[in-house]
Design a protein that fits this description.
- The protein is mainly alpha-helical.
- The longest helix is centred in the last third of the chain and has 22 residues, at about 560-580.
């Protein structure tokens, strides 16, 4: 099932009411929309009627700037166009019959985009029944067909699309219908029909030519006519396409020529692919294909060269290990003890690795010194140093800590300037700490910081010193922490160390020093857990729970009109801020540079491709386009600002956030005192958006949750990507495990549940809110325990809370959560929650 991440436009979405409205009363409800004021709308939401929120297109460089971050998108099959600001109708204004159709269409589109397909079908059918004429009917007919396709009903969807072509032969959506019919035919193995539809698309539209060419090539493969598909794959490599699509086409071409025993051309295509591919695992697989081509052609020498490259450079991949085994079987004398030792190390075979690395270093007795090699080249010495390093790691992982420390120290002493020596000394210190030699570890950490002050391990070593020293004496830790802050002000451990130092001072009764440390942590421009906790404790020293948001404290979260007004204000501040540092120093005025950047983004062909890809449900491909767009403009701050807005409007929330974070990073590169908390509010809101606000508000109200806590969880779980899946099998916006989803579905009385339902926005948020609410209920509303249970399981939280009751000391509970992943999860979600409360507070202004 395709995962839908499309959003709604503001004008349509404002009037979208709850999904439980009865069809027999929908006309009356629609008529009442024009009578509702913002105050009544807010009250309705608080009383329990789902409020879908509002959204408009954030049109840059115009006096009226609409809100972003709800679900801004287009109806299925329509090209995006700016929406106007919503204005409540006067009580005496009659409703235009066509306006009723538009409202009903907006309602249906809202259900479609949220993944509520049953409700969407009912609304589209009702619209077609009541308003069979006009543009709304065309959109409804297309939406009905698309919804049927998303429900997996291929035959019915094909019939509906065919009817659409018959009834509306001149509609602009016709090319998209051809693509949908091509997909449906391909899914059903109707290859010739699929080929015909794809070619019909190309006669009328070329926006998605690269994708369609690739599909045509695949169809020819399925027809067992790969030679005919070659020309189409070659077109993909030459035309405007994402790197991923071009790489996939190049692999298809390489595979074709490899099967045809055309060694030269196959290798040429694979090598062209390697010029673009970056992922080590994928690169190793392509090199393995090249080696296989040479092997099949009995060009053994060329094959062994590639196998050797794989074994040398990619031994930590599956393809590299297969290459090693191939070489070892074919010629056992070809590989040396270094490669054998590393192979054993990768497979956790540490005794065998120790033996091999000692042999490589020329030691028959592991207790003797590693012999020097006279007149060895730099390359040989570097390789020996790495072999020595892996030997020490093998001792460490095998549990022989004293021997590991000895080898780390000897390596660093012999090769002090080698690339791995700072890490060797660092690991000597960490191993001493692991062995319980705390004072020796402190000394070793100090040696790391003084020996390699410009290396990556120096700040970590100072932080480790502080951490160990403050266990016994905050006063002893303070000078080292001062040194760390002075030398490395941006060190990520800074605020944690200050916060823990404050706790140490507090435990010793030195409340003045504790407060000073908290103030220092709170003054950081960062938005990490410890800086935010410090700010909260300074503001409310005796608070045990964070203040929950309300329509009074956070009106923009609950009131779309207020949100829009705030956004208009925020926009001016954002442009002024950009004008001070992001524009170039040429003669062009800042306002003109902003206009040029805006036009460059809005006219980028990739945005048009994203629009069409989403309209036909090719959402993975649309996300890839968004990813590469953000990479293409990664060094252009003005363009990143407009790109973040455009991607948000198209429902590409994750890459909108990424573009905003890239913009922040560019600002920080110019000014290290910049952080999330002191940039313009609009940038903060792009990084912490109110995406899926309508569903979040509904489910938060239904489950008695703070909507900002639910948004904070979604941001950490999926970063607003509905199609994301974890290695553990969790799915969707709230990362629910399928088995947990089945239990929730049963508890909610939902039938027909499948694991893929968790990719649908509405279902994922509904299930995640239900599960979070139950965990909060289990722990008396305490969010730290509830979040720990959401990630790490209730049984584990019971054990952790018994050892360190949150009611006694919240910080002790968090720091002693048994799973590192869960511990960091709780901190990040709680930090998100603090940022959301700060950014959207009623007093947030510049």
């Amino acid at each position: 099932m395709r995962k839908i991440s499309l959003a709604l436009s503001y004008k349509r979405y404002w009037q979208h009411f709850g999904r439980r409205a009865r069809l027999l009363t929908v006309s009356a409800l629609l008529a009442l929309v024009g009578l509702l004021s913002v105050t009544i709308l807010t009250a309705v939401n608080l009383m329990g009627t789902p409020n879908p929120g509002t959204a408009t297109s954030l049109s840059p460089l115009t006096p009226t700037v609409a809100a972003f971050g709800f679900q801004n998108s287009t109806t299925p099959g329509q090209n995006p166009k700016p929406a106007t600001t919503f204005t409540p109708a006067l009580a005496t204004a009659p409703l235009d019959p066509q306006a009723d159709a538009n409202l009903l269409l907006a309602r249906a589109d809202g259900f479609f985009n949220n993944g509520q397909y049953t409700e969407a079908v009912a609304q589209y059918q009702l619209l077609l029944q009541k308003y069979p004429q006009g543009q709304s009917a065309l959109a409804a007919a297309y939406g009905l067909a698309r919804t049927t396709q998303e429900r997996g009903q291929a035959a019915s969807a094909s019939q509906l699309f065919q009817q659409f072509l018959t009834r509306y032969p001149n509609d602009t959506r016709k090319p998209l219908v051809y693509l949908a019919l091509g997909d449906l035919a391909q899914e059903q193995g109707q290859w010739n029909d699929a080929l015909s539809y794809y070619q019909k698309y190309q006669k009328e539209n070329h926006t998605l030519d690269a994708y369609v060419n690739y599909k045509i090539g695949q169809v020819y493969d399925s027809l067992l006519q790969p030679a005919q598909g070659v020309a189409y794959f070659e077109k993909v490599t030459a035309g405007p396409a994402t790197i991923l699509l071009r790489v996939q086409a190049m692999e298809q071409l390489g595979d074709y020529y490899a099967k045809a025993d055309n060694v030269q051309i196959a290798v040429e295509w694979y090598n062209k692919l390697l010029e673009l591919a970056k992922m080590p695992e994928y690169r190793a697989n392509i090199l393995a294909k090249i080696a296989g081509v040479y092997t099949n052609a009995k060009q053994t020498s060329q094959a062994d060269t590639i196998y050797s490259q794989l074994a040398e450079q990619y031994l930590d991949t599956a393809a590299g290990q297969r290459a090693f085994n191939h070489l070892d079987t074919a010629n056992p004398n070809l590989l040396d003890d270094y490669e054998r030792g590393y192979m054993h190390w990768l497979n956790d075979e540490y005794p065998a690795a120790i033996k091999d690395f000692n042999n490589f270093l020329g030691r028959s007795d592991p207790n003797t010194a590693v012999p020097q090699v006279a007149n060895a080249s730099q390359a040989v010495q570097t390789r020996r140093a790495w072999g020595w390093f892996w030997l020490a790691r093998s001792y460490e992982l095998a549990g022989d800590l004293p021997k590991a420390i000895t080898e780390y120290r000897a390596l660093q002493s012999r090769y002090p300037q080698a690339a791995m020596s700072p890490e060797a000394l660092w690991r000597s210190a960490t191993t001493l700490e692991k062995a319980g030699a705390t004072q020796d570890a402190i000394t070793e950490y100090a040696k790391v910081a003084t020996t390699y002050p410009k290396g990556d391990y120096a700040p970590q070593a100072l932080a480790a010193q502080v951490r160990l020293l403050q266990k016994n004496s905050a006063e002893a830790a303070k000078p080292v922490l001062d040194t760390l802050i002075a030398k490395y002000p941006a060190n990520p451990a800074r605020n944690q160390l200050l916060y823990n130092l404050a706790r140490s001072y507090g435990a010793a009764g030195n409340m003045s020093a504790a407060r000073t440390a908290l103030i220092q942590a709170a003054a950081s421009v960062g938005n990490d857990y410890y800086a935010l906790r410090a700010r909260e404790l300074l503001a409310q020293p005796n608070a045990t729970l964070p203040p929950r948001s309300t329509p009074l404290t956070h009106p923009a979260v609950y009131d779309a009109a207020r949100f829009q007004a705030d956004t208009n204000r925020d926009r001016t501040e954002m442009e002024n801020w950009l004008s001070h540092w992001a524009v170039t120093s040429d003669v062009t005025a800042p306002a003109q540079q902003l206009t040029v950047a805006h036009d460059q983004i809005t006219q980028d062909a990739a945005l048009r491709r994203i629009d069409e890809l989403q309209q036909v449900g090719w959402n993975d491909e649309a996300s890839r386009e968004a990813k590469e767009l953000s990479e293409n403009y990664s060094t252009e701050p003005l363009q990143l600002f407009f790109l973040a807005i455009e991607l948000n409007q198209r429902g590409q929330y994750y890459y909108s956030i990424e573009a905003a974070k890239q913009l922040l990073a560019l600002a920080q590169a110019q000014n290290s005192s910049i952080g999330v908390s002191n940039v313009p509010l609009l940038l903060q809101k792009l990084i912490y958006p109110l995406d899926y606000q309508n569903i979040v508000l509904e489910q938060a109200q239904r489950n008695n949750l703070d909507p900002l806590l639910l948004l904070s969880l979604i941001k950490q779980e999926s970063s607003f990507r509905p199609a994301v899946a974890s290695g553990a099998g969790a799915r969707g916006l709230t990362q629910v495990i399928p088995s947990t989803g089945a239990a929730i579905a049963a508890n909610l009385g939902k039938t027909g549940y499948t694991a893929d339902n968790l990719y649908l926005p509405y279902t994922s948020i509904e299930f995640g809110a239900y599960y979070l609410a139950n965990r909060l209920h289990d722990y008396n509303g305490e969010p730290f325990e509830a979040l720990a249970a959401y990630n790490g399981g209730e049984g584990n939280v019971t054990k952790w809370a018994a050892a360190h009751p949150p009611s006694s000391n919240l910080d002790d509970f968090v720091e002693n959560i048994g799973y590192a992943e869960t511990r960091e999860y709780v901190k990040i979600v709680y930090a998100n929650y603090a940022m959301y409360r700060q950014i959207y507070a009623a007093t947030a202004e510049r």
